[in-house]
Amino acid sequence: MTPLSRRAFAVAAMASLLVGCGGHGADRTTTTARPRSTPPPSSASASGSASASASAKGAHALGRSVPVGLRIPAIGVDTPVMRLGLASDGSVQVPPVTAHDRAGWYRHSPTPGQVGPSVILGHVTVGSYGDGVFRHLARLHRGDRIVARLENGTAAVFTVTAVRTVAKADFPADEVYGNVNRPELRLITCGGPRTGDGYLDNVIVFAALTSATS
C-alpha cells in the first residue's frame, strides 16, 4: 500500500465502521471499532487463520490488481465488486441499497492476493428489494473456497479459516485490520438479532490465499 493508503487504512481501523444492512431503504447501523494508534504486528490473524497456515504456505503473494468479481460457490454468490472509500465522517463506505445488490472492496485495503487483509463488504438485506448479496455469509465453514476475480484476469482463490458473529459494539478491529504477513481476506456483513434500526451483530469471514490462476 502507498503511505496514503496505509494512513486511510489505519483511520478505518480506529473509526466507527458503518456497516449498512439495508433494513429500511438506506438505513445504516453502527459498529464501533476499538481505537488503536497503529495496527498490531502479527504473523497471523488472531481470528484463527493461523490454523490454516500450512495450506497457505504454497500461495505466493500477488501483485496489486483491483477486484472486479467475487464468487463463493458454497453459498451461491457470484457478484461484481465495486470500490468503496471513506465517508465524510471517516467511516468505511458501504455499497448502495439497490435492486442489483453487489459487494464492495474497501480501496484503502490491500487488493485480494496482496500481503495483508483485503476487506470486502456486502449487505445481508437491501430493504424492499429483499435479500442482499451476503445474505448467507454466516453459513460458510472453515475450508470453503472464495474466488476473487481481479482486473488483470487472475483468479485469487482463498480458503475460509474462520467465521465469526460478533456484537457490533465489540467489533474486533485489530483482527480485521491488523497486520498479517501473508495475503488474507475479510468479508463483512450484518447478522444476529434484527432490531427496528437494523441488526445487532456483524458476521466476519476470515480467509487466506491458497492459490491463483490466470
From TrEMBL:
Q: Which CDD domains match?
A: Sortase_F
The residues the entry assigns to the signal sequence are 1-25
Where along the chain is composition biased (Low complexity)? 43-56
Ranges where the record places region Disordered: 26-56
Query: Would you say which domain of life the source belongs to?
Result: Bacteria
Q: Keyword set for this entry? A: Hydrolase, Signal
Mention any Pfam family matching this sequence: Sortase
Protein name per the record: Class F sortase
This chain's source organism reads Streptomyces yaanensis
